[in-house]
Amino acid sequence: MANAADYIADVQKYAPEATEEEVAKIVKHLGIALTKRDSSLVSCSDPKELERVRESWLKRKLALTDSDADLDAAISAVCTTLAGDTSKERVTFYYLLAQKYGKVATL
Fold it and tell me: What angle do the packed helices 68-81 and 90-100 form, to 10 degrees?
């Protein structure tokens, strides 16, 4: 089973202030999804994948009520931030979205 130590270095490349405790909350939330390489990554070129991020992470978990267009813009911004990474770790992606909306402390 994955743990925060497996992801903290990747998250801190983009958010140096991230703590292992915060990352652990995302890892716990994702659970079994992190056991398969494919589901542990986010594909910015897959519209269904990005819709899933918006619906399950931003709306359900973070309880955001912004318009889909605004949420999609935030997702797109994270895709741009991670553009240099061929493997966009889901934990890092979700952390950056939580950070953008000031929700890291409430994970």
Answer: 120
pTM for the whole thing? Answer: 0.95
Q: Please give the Cα distance from 55 to 48 (Å, whole number).
A: 10
- Residues forming beta bridges with residue 41, ordered by sequence position: 89
Q: CB–CB of 74/58 below 8 Å? A: yes
List alpha helices for the chain, DSSP H. Answer: 8-14, 20-30, 47-52, 68-81, 90-100
55: its two tokens: 């619906």
DSSP 86: S
Q: Name which of 66, 53, 59, 60 is nearest 94 in CA terms.
A: 53
pLDDT tens sequence across 93-104:
999 999 999 999
Give the model confidence (pLDDT) of 52-73 as tens digits.
Answer: 999 999 999 999 999 999 999 9
SS3 content of the chain, % helix, strand, coil (to 5): 65, 0, 30
